[in-house]
Design brief:
alpha/beta; Rossmann fold; five-stranded parallel β-sheet; 42% helix
Length: 295
């Protein structure tokens, strides 16, 4: 067959249009994103910590924790792309690269960067239009929550606890979602720090700032409200005095992906509406299990 410029172009087009077909997701947010894009059949392996969506946990092979992985199992699944997150998975990524695997590591830490991750992933798998539709849907819901929060007579000050000993305040995307939901963060200056160690806050500083609401999400551990109340000096904190201590499960809010932009922010908005004695429209109400004190 004679090779012409047209056939060369077609051959090149066929080659570059072959998007990744065997993807391993080392964290939950890329798994959930691919499911929302309708591209879940490409996933051949997931993190053992994945709970969203439930069908992923039920159907997909588990190949990793957060900072370690089953390398032989990953290799046996013959991935053409592995998706990782942040410097915390740098060692996993490095080992896979040494073994000849294509690795894409995201590092999203803000609401805008979460949207960018979704769009980037949609392009990687060749479904950019689906990605644009998904981002628009998520943005519209955030706008609806922001509008609902405008009804609040004041913006309650909120301490978000990512961990309890030492107390670690919220990372950037969490703090941004608290503001969208109608609250005001008590440690806004710390949100820019990626490392948890740089967001440690003391009892003394919390007592001084006296947040009106405390929301705990202790990285998979159940929030012990009595332990918060019993902290030395916390009897002077507004949230303790007025009994406004709540929990949002970490799977909803500490995932830098679709979960935090949907269920996570919905639950925070529900908490703040409850504090104000207001109801939330069913369209933006939580869909999952919520703190029992809100029922």
């Amino acid at each position: 067959m004679k090779i012409t410029p047209d056939t060369k172009a077609q051959t090149l087009k066929n080659t570059i249009s072959s998007y990744p077909q065997r993807i391993i997701c080392l964290t939950e947010e890329t798994t959930e994103t691919l499911y929302l894009l309708g591209e879940q059949d490409r996933i051949v392996g997931i993190s053992g910590y994945t709970v969203r969506p439930p069908e992923a946990r039920r159907d997909k092979p588990k190949v990793s924790a957060f900072i370690n992985a089953k390398f032989d199992k990953i290799m046996s699944l013959e991935p053409d792309l592995v998706l990782a997150f942040s410097d915390l998975q740098a060692d996993i990524a490095a080992e896979l690269i040494k073994r000849g695997v294509n690795v894409m590591t995201f590092n999203q830490r803000s609401v805008t960067e979460i949207f960018q991750m979704i769009l980037c992933l949609s392009r990687i798998v060749g479904v950019e239009e689906k990605g644009l539709v998904l981002v628009e849907k998520l943005q519209n819901e955030l706008d609806a929550i922001r509008l609902s929060a405008s009804r609040f007579p004041t913006r309650k000050s909120v301490l978000f606890e990512e961990w309890f000993d030492p107390i670690i305040s919220g990372i950037r995307w969490v703090e941004e979602l608290i503001e969208i939901a109608g609250g005001e963060c008590v440690f806004p200056e710390l949100r820019e720090y990626q490392a948890a160690k740089d967001r440690i806050v003391s009892y003394e500083e919390i007592i001084k700032r006296s947040p009106e609401v405390i929301i705990g999400s202790w990285c998979g551990r159940q929030v012990k409200k009595d332990k918060i109340r019993e902290r030395v000096g916390f009897d002077k904190v507004s949230a303790v005095i007025d009994n406004h201590i709540y929990e949002v499960k970490s799977t909803y809010i500490l995932q830098p992906g679709p979960a935090s932009l949907t269920e996570g922010v919905r639950q925070i908005h529900k908490i703040l509406a409850h504090v104000h004695g207001l109801c939330v429209d069913a369209k933006i109400a939580p869909q999952e299990k919520i703190d029992k004190d809100l029922v």
